[in-house]
């Protein structure tokens, strides 16, 4: 699922929508003006969105919405190869404008570049500090995943999930500002 940036007529501020809009086929690289119907689900606070019509569709050169969404938060590593690693303090941050990443494995800092194409993310030109690490060392597994040519990903609820050959290998949780 892709997160969309939305701006309603009532608010003059862009916000992120992590829900889907039924009947809407978003294409990256375009800005849309659409009309939607909002339906509150019974017994929950969940709102369901359905497309009424596409009012306009314009080509834009702005950053892809997924990269912009990722850049809004620090992402803390929660799970690595099925193991809980929340105590590791590993995290990643994205700079969408420059296509760069910075982060920590919990011991060493790292940096590099990233690209996103569809549901694939690639981490390139990675470098890191080289401290000797005591205790739980997750670096080898961490970098082995990041060095894959293209990693499939999705954003679900408040997590960034990375897959290798369709197997979930990393889960990052967003840290609110």
The CATH class name of the largest domain reads Mainly Beta
Question: Quick one: overall form?
Answer: elongated
Tell me what the CATH architecture of the largest domain is. Beta Barrel
DSSP summary, beta strand count: 14
Count, helices:
2
Strand share of the residues? over 45%
Q: Between the first and last Cα atoms, what is the distance in angstroms? A: 23 Å
Q: List low-pLDDT spans.
A: none
Helix/strand structural class: mainly beta
Spell out the helices and strands N to C: EEEEEHEEEEEEHEEE
The main sheet orders its strands as 6-8-9-10-11-12-13-14
Give the overall pLDDT as a whole number: 86
- Biggest sheet details: 8 strands, antiparallel, barrel
- Rg, rounded, reads 18 Å
Overall description:
The protein is mostly beta strands. The chain has two domains: 56 residues, no CATH class; 111 residues, Lipocalin. It has an eight-stranded antiparallel beta barrel with strand order 6-8-9-10-11-12-13-14. The protein has a three-stranded mixed beta sheet with strand order 3-5-4, with no helix packed on it. A two-stranded antiparallel sheet has the order 1-2. The chain is elongated and about 55 Å long. The mean pLDDT is 86.
């Amino acid at each position: 699922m892709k997160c969309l940036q939305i701006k309603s007529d009532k608010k003059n501020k862009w916000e992120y929508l992590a829900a889907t809009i039924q009947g809407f086929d978003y294409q990256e690289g375009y800005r849309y003006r659409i009309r939607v119907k909002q339906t509150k689900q019974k017994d929950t606070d969940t709102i369901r969105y359905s497309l009424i019509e596409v009012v306009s569709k314009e080509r834009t050169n702005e950053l892809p919405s997924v990269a912009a969404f990722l850049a809004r938060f620090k992402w803390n590593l929660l799970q690595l190869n099925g193991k809980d690693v929340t105590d590791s303090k590993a995290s990643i941050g994205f700079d969408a404008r420059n296509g760069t990443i910075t982060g920590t494995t919990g011991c060493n800092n790292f940096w590099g570049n990233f690209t996103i194409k569809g549901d694939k993310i690639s981490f390139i030109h990675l470098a890191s500090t080289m401290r000797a690490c005591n205790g739980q060392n997750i670096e080898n597994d961490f970098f082995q995943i990041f060095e894959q040519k293209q990693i499939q990903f999705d954003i679900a609820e408040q997590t960034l999930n990375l897959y290798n050959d369709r197997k979930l290998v990393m889960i990052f949780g967003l840290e609110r500002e």
